[in-house]
């Protein structure tokens, strides 16, 4: 089969890689693929499947020292956005699936997440800490439109006046503007909005089922205009793909009202290295080797970098160039902007579910 016929439009990953926890694997032979092509049949379904799960806990303590959050929670496991570089792909293997296409097509719906969250916030031992929704997978991915778990959780955060931060790249967050405005009145929320490129062509390849760039910038402006602090994540920066866009991205974010920017240098840990390598040879064959080599130069000669402190920022000339551009962008476009700290003081008063008027 030709490279063109093998490319699965609307998906990031183009393969299902072996789950590292499984001894056995299956693969599709060329004769079967050629038969499917001749018959006009797809070798497997490209539909998204929603699978309900009921975890025992929902709030996770984040041990990684360079992530920038203390606690996180995820409404969904797997993500239909299909971002080819996503670090969360590896976590799908713990559920018995592949980090490749399975990550995008088998979405686990944590139906009891709101109940688990409320139980956590009602616990007498819990002290207020900012909980980040989407520490792993996007809480506003397409599944949220159908299941509404993220909105239910936001209602609980508001009920208990507990601080919550969001990481997303989906304009669906605008649906819940009413809740964010109420939370923002008491400085209880912030949004980290991911914008990786200003090029729609690049976005469609890197992040095939995400909101358009225009919708993302419009959403940043909508949130900012309504008093919700927004940090734009220029993440990840991928040498040879979007590394030339740092300054225009930062300007667009600032013009839309963002108060700050953050960034990471792409890292391709675990199965992601194989998935990304396969993808770029199909999606960008003319620059595949150049991009892969430049990524390696940022991580000590390897795609897989797990070193605390270095893995998120990289090292070497390319990483330094990226760091310098981000520094310049902050100085040029965000010099007079301040990102507020979250309010941790109200939660104890509302821990019982309503303001405690009597003690």
From TrEMBL:
SMART domains: Elp3. Keywords: Iron, Iron-sulfur, Lyase, Metal-binding. Coiled coil: none annotated. InterPro entries: Elp3/MiaA/NifB-like_rSAM, MJ0683-like, rSAM, rSAM_sf. SUPFAM superfamilies: Radical SAM enzymes. Pfam families: Radical_SAM. The keyword Oxidoreductase does not apply. CDD domains: Radical_SAM. Residues 65-310 form the Radical SAM core domain. The keyword Cytoplasm does not apply. GO terms for molecular function: iron-sulfur cluster binding; lyase activity; metal ion binding. NCBIfam families: rSAM_PA0069. This is DNA repair photolyase. It comes from Flavobacterium noncentrifugens.
């Amino acid at each position: 089969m030709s490279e063109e016929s093998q490319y699965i439009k609307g998906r990031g990953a183009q393969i299902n890689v072996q789950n590292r926890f499984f001894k056995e694997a299956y693969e599709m032979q060329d004769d079967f693929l050629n038969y499917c092509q001749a018959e006009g049949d797809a070798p497997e379904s490209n539909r998204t499947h929603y699978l309900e799960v009921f975890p025992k806990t929902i709030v996770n303590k984040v041990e990684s020292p360079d992530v920038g959050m203390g606690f996180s929670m995820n409404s969904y496991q797997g993500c239909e956005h299909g971002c080819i570089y996503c670090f969360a792909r590896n976590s799908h293997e713990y559920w018995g699936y592949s980090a490749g296409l399975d990550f995008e097509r088998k979405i686990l719906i944590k139906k009891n997440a709101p109940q688990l969250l409320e139980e956590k916030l009602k616990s007498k031992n819990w002290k207020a800490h900012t909980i980040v929704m989407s520490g792993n997978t996007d809480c506003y991915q397409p599944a949220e439109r159908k299941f509404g778990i993220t909105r239910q959780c936001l209602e609980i955060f508001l009920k208990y006046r507990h601080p919550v931060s969001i990481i997303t790249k989906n304009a669906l967050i605008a649906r819940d503007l009413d809740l964010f405005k109420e939370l923002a009145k008491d400085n209880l929320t912030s949004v980290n909005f991911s914008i990786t490129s200003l090029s729609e062509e690049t976005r469609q390849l890197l992040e095939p089922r995400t909101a358009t760039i225009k919708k993302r910038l419009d959403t940043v402006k909508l949130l900012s205009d309504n008093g919700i602090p927004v940090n734009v994540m220029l993440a990840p920066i991928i040498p040879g793909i979007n590394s030339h866009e740092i300054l225009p991205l930062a300007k667009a974010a600032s013009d839309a009202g963002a108060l700050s920017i953050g960034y990471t240098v792409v890292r391709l840990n675990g199965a992601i290295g194989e998935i990304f390598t396969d993808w770029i040879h199909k999606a960008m064959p003319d620059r595949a080797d150049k991009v892969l080599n430049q990524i390696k130069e940022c991580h000590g000669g390897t795609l897989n970098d797990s070193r605390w402190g270095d893995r998120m920022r990289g090292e070497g000339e390319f990483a330094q160039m990226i760091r310098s551009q981000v520094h310049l962008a902050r100085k040029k476009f965000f010099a007079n902007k301040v990102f507020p700290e979250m309010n941790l003081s109200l939660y104890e008063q509302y821990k019982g579910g309503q303001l405690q008027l009597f003690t």
